[in-house]
Specification:
Elements (H helix, E strand, L loop, with lengths): L1 H10 L7 H28 L19 E2 L4 E2 L10 H19 L9 H24 L4 H5 L7 H19 L15 H21 L6 H29 L4 H15 L8 H26 L7 H19 L2 H4 L5 H30 L5 H6 L1 H6 L5
Antiparallel strand pairs: 1-2
Helix pairs in contact: 1-2, 1-7, 2-3, 2-4, 3-4, 3-6, 4-6, 4-13, 6-11, 6-13, 7-8, 7-9, 8-9, 8-10, 9-10, 9-11, 10-11, 11-13
Organism: Actimicrobium antarcticum
Membrane topology: Multi-pass membrane protein
Pfam family, one: Ammonium_transp
Length: 384
């Protein structure tokens, strides 16, 4: 989903002089988070500790794989039906894509060195604690009954809100609002979005942690909500602009898929249709009307799609939850608690991280480097 899905999705929307840069962001994020995850991240997110953070028993994945006393592969208490190594790897994919999403918010002007520091710090200080709160059974949100099947709060709200903070703190691109900055190759974007769509079926279905009926239903409602999001974005854009864009279609699909993520293991087809349709409209308005009104430069609409879609999906989980599907229930109020805390925590810690990174290496390239493009200025290479 991150490589090549997100890398291609973002690459098509930036200007040609920055296409390698934004793809490199996805690749380096994959590498950084992989190492941090096996060293410390997994243990702090998915082992018992306090309700705010896990313990140290899986640092460097110590004790993983084989227990001599039983002669069996280790399993996580969260996923006892699969080898723990599979659970580690599966959860790693969530940990990777979440900060990778943020890179679209400050595309085309951030230093590569600043990105590397930001990704490492954000992964450990924002993603890991929130994942523990939601998905560790003794975590803070889990104890309060907040439902998030596959990442509405953990992935999308945290990344979307952090993206908005980052876009504001890094600052607008030179010429933003005064000159056109059209996507350079939407074919890449459509291919990337398609890979994300297919990959997301595994993302949401896999969160059942079993090959069962609930996993199958999660896949089905994900497909339905994605289609509903694409069509509702298309409809409102057609009415407002007089033409349905292909970029709008795939953006609407992502809006629907983001919104169904927290609900996918808890709702039926009717709920999926409603969640996807509402998300498509809400995210369209967020990425156009709200963005224009507030004037921030979120290059690839991380906030408009992921934060707004995540909020819509998380809140509507409280409306459409079916207890017989997931064996649990919730309310809009409980879901709002999770949404609010996640947004405030992610925003505050992101501000602190960016402040520190700015003091250490500076956040953005010079105006001359930005005009040349980050491909040549930061990486010494270009796309012909």
């Amino acid at each position: 989903m991150t490589i090549p899905g997100l890398a291609l999705f973002y690459a098509g929307m930036v200007r040609r002089k920055n296409v390698l840069s934004i793809m490199g962001h996805s690749v380096v994020t994959t590498c950084i988070v992989t190492i941090l995850w096996v060293m410390i991240g997994y243990s702090l997110a998915f082992t018992p500790g306090s309700m705010y953070l896990g313990g140290s028993e899986r640092f460097m994945l110590g004790g993983l794989v084989f227990l001599k006393e039983t002669g069996k592969l280790t399993v996580s208490h969260i996923a006892p039906t699969i080898p723990e190594s599979v659970f580690v790897m599966y959860q790693m994919t969530f940990a990777i894509i979440t900060p990778a999403l943020i890179t679209g918010a400050f595309a085309e002007r951030i230093k590569f060195s600043a990105l590397i520091l930001f990704i490492g710090l954000w992964s450990l200080l924002v993603y890991v604690p929130i994942a523990h709160w939601v998905w560790e059974p003794a975590g803070w949100f889990a104890l309060h009954g907040v439902l998030d099947f596959a990442g509405g709060t953990v992935v999308h709200i945290s990344a979307g809100v952090s993206g908005l903070v980052a876009a504001v703190m890094v600052g607008r691109r030179v010429g933003y609002g005064q000159e056109a900055m059209p996507p350079h190759n939407l074919v890449l974007t459509v291919i990337g979005a398609s890979l994300l769509w297919v990959g997301w079926l595994g993302f949401n279905g896999g969160s059942a942690l079993a090959a069962d009926g609930r996993a199958g239903l999660a896949v089905l409602v994900t497909q339905v909500a994605t289609a509903a999001g694409a069509l509702s974005w298309m409809a409102v854009e057609w009415l407002r602009r007089g033409a349905p864009s292909v970029l709008g279609l795939v953006s609407g699909a992502l809006s629907g898929i983001v919104a169904i993520t927290p609900a996918s293991g808890f709702v039926d087809i009717q709920g999926a249709l409603a969640i996807g349709a509402v998300a498509g409209v809400a995210c369209y308005l967020g990425a156009t009307v709200l963005k224009s009104f507030l004037g921030y430069d979120d290059s690839l609409d991380v906030f408009g799609v992921h934060a707004i879609g995540g909020v819509v999906g998380s809140l509507l989980t409280g409306v459409f939850v079916v207890e017989s599907i997931g064996g649990v229930t919730t309310t809009v109020g409980i879901q709002a608690f999770g949404v609010g805390i996640t947004a405030v925590y992610a925003a505050f810690v992101t501000m602190v991280i960016l402040y520190v990174v700015n003091k250490l290496v500076g956040l953005r390239v010079t105006e001359k480097e930005e005009a040349e493009g980050l491909d040549i200025a930061q990486h010494g290479e270009t796309v012909s």
